[in-house]
Amino acid sequence: DQQVKQNSPSLSVQEGRISILNCDYTNSMFDYFLWYKKYPAEGPTFLISISSIKDKNEDGRFTVFLNKSAKHLSLHIVPSQPGDSAVYFCAASASKGKLTFGTGTRLTIIP
Amino acid sequence: KAGVTQTPRYLIKTRGQQVTLSCSPISGHRSVSWYQQTPGQGLQFLFEYFSETQRNKGNFPGRFSGRQFSNSRSEMNVSTLELGDSALYLCASSLALHTGELFFGEGSRLTVL
Q1: For A7, which residue in chain B has the nearest alpha carbon?
Q2: Are residues B107 and A45, on separate chains, in Cβ contact within 8 Å?
Q3: What is the distance between the alpha carbons of residues B62 and B79, in angstroms, rounded to a whole number?
Q4: For residue A44, what pLDDT band results from cuts at 50, 70 and 90?
Q5: Is residue B68 within 8 Å of B32, Cβ to Cβ?
Q6: What does the alpha-carbon distance between residue B82 and residue B64 come to, in Å, rounded to a whole number?
Q7: Residues of B in contact with A40 (CB under 8 A)
Q8: Contact B102/A46, CB-based, under 8 Å?
Q9: Strands A32-38 and B103-104, how do they pair?
Q10: Which of A41, A93, A97 sits opposite B106 (nearest CB)?
Q11: Chain A residue nearest residue B89, CA to CA
């Protein structure tokens, strides 16, 4: 049972445009959400997080939006840069416990 | 500050063999988690250790086991390897339990022939 779902395995975006990555979850106990970025042959690196008491968190070019009623979160990257090409994983936890990851979305930024 | 170190980075085994993977967490981090990454499955949680005790376990068969030492270093073992065990095994550390953010190593890529 996939509790965290990333329904788009891949996404291509023109450089300079906005990249929007989506993630849905089913477990209503999840209250802490994170996005990780992974380059080939490297481990995932933490990008940004959001607690369920907020609906938006921003860090530079990266913004995460949380819609609790829809059990949906999204990561916006503006403007997209070639170095953003990577696999992005959404993760969720209850009370900052064990992280449950989605299957990832491969983002390709086209120069 | 050194990151999470995993050894070996790559290894090839045959079915039926066993393998041990090692993880050294970031200095000062006391919690270590292990994940399996396979294409299309994302990162699947294996187990989590804190203070030499397994605190959480994922839905993997008993062939998968692990331990943590007093210096917080961790090992995981897979016995009686199957073809489906071929994957990238990722170790992550955090300061303590329930801190949210995990810091990952580069992984150990296991190929089972």
Answers
A1: B40
A2: no
A3: 9
A4: very high
A5: yes
A6: 11
A7: none
A8: yes
A9: unpaired
A10: A41
A11: A43
Give the tens place of pLDDT for each residue, B37-93: 988 778 999 999 999 999 989 999 999 999 999 999 999 999 999 999 999 999 999
Contact A107/B at CB under 8 A: no
Written as one string, the DSSP assignment of B6-49 is EE-SEEEE-TT--EEEEEEPPTT--EEEEEEEETTTEEEEEEEE
Q: Please, which pLDDT band fits residue A41 given cuts at 50, 70 and 90?
A: confident
CA distances (Å), origin A27, targets A2, A31, A91: 10, 9, 12
Residue A20 amino acid letter: I
Helix (H, G, I), strand (E, B) or coil at A84: helix
Residues 20-79 of B with CB under 8 A from A: 33, 35, 40-45, 48, 56
Q: Rounded to whole angstroms, how far apart are CA atoms A26 and B36?
A: 21
Residue B5: strand, helix, or coil: strand
Average of per-residue pLDDT across B21-44 = 92
Q: What is the pLDDT, as a whole number, of residue B1? A: 59
